[in-house]
Write a structure and sequence with these properties.
single chain, alpha/beta, Rossmann fold, 7-stranded mixed β-sheet, 5 helices, 23% helix, 36% strand, globular
């Protein structure tokens, strides 16, 4: 299984380190050009600045390559914004793939960055779903304001979805790559890709 991490801007190195805990280093590709994408089974779009990531994607023509291949994608924070079909009050670039409406920096100034425990249903070794406590690291995070019919809300914080899935797309408004727990990455590889 070959997994790419979009390495244009943001915390892509942390995602690569996380993947190294669960798959062979040789199966992880840093994606900087469209030619890095063929052969990938899945792609991670990291947190960072969604406008910067989007602009670089267009400039290098990576957006078309991703859309044309219907790749499984895991977007974290800015990566979730890049996946969204609707970014409130903004006409910035997005891949326009996931039926979610997001508000950038939705937690506002006072709660700009915070950590809290989340409950995430992750498969246990016997295959059944088990609620797992997971440290949610939120950094100028977006809020998912609404979700379309095909979107499954896997975890929420105070009624706001924070981990959602639509077919082969997974998005979190927090940063699992900034913890030392690879379980959400493993979930992406085992159940979404
Ligand atoms: N606030 C950033 C944006 O709107 C996202 C922040 C992050 O990825 N930690 O793009």
């Amino acid at each position: 299984m070959k997994i790419g991490v979009l390495g244009l801007q943001g915390d892509f190195l942390e995602h690569m380190k996380m993947l190294e805990l669960i798959i062979d280093k040789r199966d992880i590709t840093l994606v900087k050009q469209p030619s890095d994408i063929p052969g990938l089974d899945g792609l991670i779009i990291p947190g960072g600045e969604s406008t910067a990531i989007g602009n670089l994607m267009i400039k290098r023509g990576i957006d078309r390559e991703i859309i044309d291949r219907s790749l499984p994608i895991f977007g974290t924070c800015a990566g979730a914004i890049i996946l969204a079909k609707d970014i409130i009050g903004s006409d910035q670039f997005s891949l326009n793939l996931m039926d979610i409406q997001v508000e950038r920096n939705g937690y506002g100034r006072q709660r700009e960055s915070f950590e809290t425990d989340l409950e995430i249903p992750l498969p246990s070794p016997d295959g059944r779903k088990k609620l797992k406590k997971f440290r949610g690291v939120f950094i100028r995070a977006p809020i998912i304001k609404s979700t379309g019919e095909g979107v499954e809300i896997l975890s929420a914080l105070d009624s706001d979805p924070v981990l959602v899935r639509q077919k082969n797309l997974l998005a979190s408004t927090f940063h699992p790559e900034l913890t030392d727990d690879p379980d959400i990455h493993r979930f992406f590889l085992e159940k979404v890709v």
